[in-house]
């Protein structure tokens, strides 16, 4: 697989830096033969701003096999558009935020599901959670959460709402919670958000 960034042992061991916790949460800095940027090839964003991660360098593929249309969409001026959202700090450490296709746009504001999921997972009754957007006439999309409670535990939507309000901005909290016995996953254990979207569209929740 293509190695884009690395977090060195020295970075992991160094607790003297004022942002060492942020560094541990990052995926490290670009490898010597790779250039990493945020934004678009012709409009890069400054450090601290979230955008799409773009990459170029020796490990980057030249294109998709016999698929020029997909190659043209993914490779622009030598840059690979990863589809991942992230942010670079002033020292070049990259922190992943989400997949661009999973970003929820509510009232014109980008909401990153991963941030909401991480907040919900700090509740001791939550075993698993997945956050997606639901079409909204008023806001474009609403934030909704599918929640799996831990074994022998129970939690209400009101409790989770209060928990979220204590950790993230009010507008980011889910407008609805769906309590399910499990989440749909691939053979690799990845949560299939497309299946959750299908459940919403078909009214099976």
What secondary-structure arrangement, pairings included, does this model have?
Elements: E1 5-6, H1 9-13, H2 20-24, E2 29-30, E3 34-40, E4 43-44, E5 51-57, H3 68-74, E6 75-76, E7 79-88, E8 94-99, E9 104-106, E10 109-111, H4 113-121, E11 126-136, E12 140-149, H5 157-165, E13 176-179, H6 193-201
Parallel strand pairs: 12-13
Antiparallel strand pairs: 1-2, 3-4, 3-5, 5-7, 6-7, 7-8, 9-10, 11-12
Description:
The protein is of the alpha+beta class and about 200 residues long. The protein folds into 2 domains: about 5-100, Luciferase, Domain 3 (Luciferase, domain 3), CATH 2.30.38; about 105-200, ANL, C-terminal domain (GMP Synthetase, Chain A, domain 3, 2-Layer Sandwich), CATH 3.30.300.30. The chain has helices at about 10-15, 20-25, 70-75, 115-120, 155-165, 195-200, and strands at about 5, 30, 35-40, 45, 50-55, 75, 80-90, 95-100, 105, 110, 125-135, 140-150, 175-180. Strands 3, 4, 5, 6, 7 and 8 form a 6-stranded antiparallel beta sheet that branches. Strands 11-12-13 form a 3-stranded mixed beta sheet. The chain has a two-stranded antiparallel ribbon with strand order 1-2.
Under CATH at level 1, the class of the largest domain stands as Alpha Beta
CATH topology call of the largest domain: GMP Synthetase, Chain A, domain 3
Characterize the largest beta sheet: strand count, sense, and whether it forms a barrel: 6 strands, antiparallel
Structural class: alpha+beta
Q: What's the helix count?
A: 6
Order of secondary-structure elements: EHHEEEEHEEEEEHEEHEH
Number of domains: 2
- Terminal CA distance: 38 Å
CATH superfamily of the largest domain: ANL, C-terminal domain
Unreliable residue runs: none
The CATH architecture of the largest domain: 2-Layer Sandwich
β-strand number: 13
Radius of gyration, rounded?
19 Å
Instruction: Work out the strand percent.
Output: 25-35%
- Give the helix proportion (percent range): 10-25%
Question: Which shape, going by the Cα principal axes?
Answer: globular
- Arithmetic mean of pLDDT: 93
């Amino acid at each position: 697989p293509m190695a884009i960034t690395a977090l060195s042992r020295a970075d992991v061991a160094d607790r003297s830096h004022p942002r060492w916790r942020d560094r541990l949460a990052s995926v490290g800095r670009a490898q010597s033969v790779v250039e990493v940027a945020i934004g678009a090839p012709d409009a890069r964003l400054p450090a601290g701003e979230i955008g799409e991660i773009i990459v170029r360098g020796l490990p980057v593929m030249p294109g998709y096999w016999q698929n020029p249309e997909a190659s043209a969409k993914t490779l622009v001026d030598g840059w690979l558009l990863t589809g991942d959202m992230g942010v670079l700090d002033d020292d070049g450490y990259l922190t992943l935020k989400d997949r661009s296709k999973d970003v929820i746009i509510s009232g014109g504001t980008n909401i990153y599901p991963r941030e909401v999921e991480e907040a919900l997972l700090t509740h001791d009754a939550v075993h698993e959670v997945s956050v997606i957007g639901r079409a909204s006439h008023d806001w474009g999309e609403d934030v909704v959460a599918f929640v799996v409670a831990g074994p022998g535990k129970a939690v209400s939507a009101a409790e989770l709402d209060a928990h979220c309000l204590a950790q993230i901005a009010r507008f980011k909290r889910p407008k609805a919670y769906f309590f399910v016995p499990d989440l749909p996953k691939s053979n690799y254990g990845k949560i299939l958000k497309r299946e959750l979207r299908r459940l919403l569209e078909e009214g099976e929740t």
